[in-house]
Amino acid sequence: MDTLSILVMNGPNLSRLGKREPEVYGRRSLDDINRGLAEAFPGVAFDFFQSEEEGELLEKLFHCEDHGGYSGVILNAGALTHYSIALRDAISAVSVPVIEVHLSNIYAREEFRRKSVISEVCSGVVSGFGANSYHLGVRGLMGMLESP
Ligand code: DQA
């Protein structure tokens, strides 16, 4: 099988992981999480992207669709998950499979977090396993690509 290439995208506030509400999101930084993925899946070529800006995430998705050659995207959209119709439309507009991941279990939290406007257009959703959500997302994506 060809080397899989996966883009791991993180949205607003995820640059603060490790320092931000560690009781909710854990003590690992985003770099720790990204490094952990690269170590756990040595056969996968990862690219990592984080932005505080909605528009930059959209542009990255379009760039990935047009030039990236990625097999799939793992996306933690942070708070955009709950209200960004622009992000939802962008995910709908690309053919690359997008897996939605969350460190926390968004369905066990405040009411406003229990609604994801992007789940319907994502190929899969993982929520509530801490940093392991990213690993499970990658595993799920790999399985999906192997046997669609
Ligand atoms: C999050 C959950 C969101 O509700 C929140 O806004 C985040 C992180 C998570 O990974 O658990 O920024 O996506």
SSE arrangement:
Layout: E1 4-10, H1 22-25, H2 30-40, E2 44-50, H3 54-68, E3 72-76, H4 85-93, E4 98-102, E5 124-127, H5 132-146
Parallel strand pairs: 1-2, 1-3, 3-4, 4-5
Bound molecules: 1,3,4-trihydroxy-5-OXO-cyclohexanecarboxylic acid.
Please give a structural write-up.
The chain has 148 residues and is α/β, with parallel strands linked by helices. It has one domain: Rossmann fold (3-Layer(aba) Sandwich). It is 36% helix and 19% strand. It contains 5 helices and 5 strands, in the order βααβαβαββα. It has a 5-stranded parallel β-sheet, sandwiched between helices. Strand 3, helix 4 and strand 4 form a beta-alpha-beta unit. Helix 3 runs parallel beside helix 4. The radius of gyration is 14 Å and the shape is globular. It binds 1,3,4-trihydroxy-5-OXO-cyclohexanecarboxylic acid. The site of 1,3,4-trihydroxy-5-OXO-cyclohexanecarboxylic acid has 10 residues, from loops.
Quick structural summary:
The chain is α/β, with parallel strands linked by helices and 148 residues long. It has helices at residues 22-25, 30-40, 54-68, 85-93, 132-146, and strands spanning 4-10, 44-50, 72-76, 98-102, 124-127. Helix content is 36%, strand content 19%.
